[in-house]
Each structure stands twice: as structure tokens, then as C-alpha cells.
Fold this sequence. Notes:
Elements: E1 10-15, H1 21-34, E2 39-43, H2 49-60, H3 65-89, E3 93-97, H4 100-110, H5 115-125, E4 133-138, H6 141-151, H7 163-179, E5 184-188, H8 193-205
Parallel strand pairs: 1-3, 1-4, 2-3, 4-5
Helix pairs in contact: 1-8, 2-3, 3-5, 4-7
Amino acid sequence: MNQSLARGRFITFEGIDGAGKSSQIAAAVALLQQRGIVVEQSREPGGTALGERLRELLLHEAMDLETEAMLMFAARREHLAARIEPALAAGRWVVCDRFSDATYAYQVGGRGLSAAKFAALEQWVHPGLQPDLTILFDLPPAIAAARVASTGHAPDRFEREQGAFFERVRAAYLQRAQAAPARIRVIDAGQTPERIRAEVEALVGALCPR
């Protein structure tokens, strides 16, 4: 299949902080490139110059919950308009670290934002667009927290939340996955990196043209 003539695919990676997405995203991108697919790799919040500025505010400035949710979706709208939608239309594939599932998990599940308000924002910002594949790295929060602590970097305001917050985030992620099992595929992030990589490559490889 000529990728220039077909709409690209949209793949997202999700999970609580410390679940181990980063190295597996790199492996997925490498696999796609080996198969001759042009890939754009990005992240949320961020992905654009404006999005990265909003990311700094979101990660480090205290704010009202609804302000937080609207800024998340503002960064996402810019990301979609400037990068994701043009890339997909041109036949490129997009691999993104987090998307709207993260907002549902963190702001609805973790912080208690109204699910109806989240749904309204999602419908406004990207009606009809969901990832073709979302890989959710599931891990008990206590293990994830130990992994984050071992990195030695200064935690952002989300990473400083207590274990109960991440339990709610994890539960919301799994609830979202249960509601969309064909799109959101759950991987046990407590396995060895090699086993996780094999599962990721099988899921991503299944989307590739034969």
C-alpha cells in the first residue's frame, strides 16, 4: 500500500506515571519505520510550541480543576490542528504519548471532573476522531511510584500526588478500556521489558499494511 495515498494511522500510549511507556514508544516507532512507514512522534500535553508552553503551566502551576481540563483540551486542539490531523491526512502515522484517555483518567478519575463536562470537551475538540489503537500500560501505583522515585528527577505536581489519586487514575483507565476494548489494549506493565516489547510490537504490527 502506498502510504502517500492512504490516511495514516493514529496510535497512542497511556498509563500512570512510571508505567514504562517511553522505551516502548521508541520501539514501536522503530518497528514502523523498519516497515517503511513515515511516523510522527509526539506527546500530550505538548506537541506544538504553544502546547509545550501550556504543558509547563499544567505540570507546574496550581489551578482550578476546570481550568486544568480546558487547558488540556486547548493544547490538544492546537496539537490536532497543527500536527495530528495534517499528518494523518498526508498518510503519515502518528504515535503519541497520551491523548484524551489520559484526561479522562487524570482529570475525571483522579481529580473528580464531571464526566459530562469531559464528554462535552471531547466532542467539541475532536468529534469523530479517536486513535486507531491505544496501548494502556497497567501497573499497580505503588510499583509505578517506586519507579518514578528511582529516576531522581524533580517530580511535577501530578507525580507528587498520593497513592490514592493514582489508584483512581488507574481505575478510570481500566474503565475506559472496558468501554472500548477493540481500541484500548491493556498490557501488564509489570512483565519484563522484553515481554512487553513483544506484545507492543504484535499490536502495532497488526495495524501495518501487508
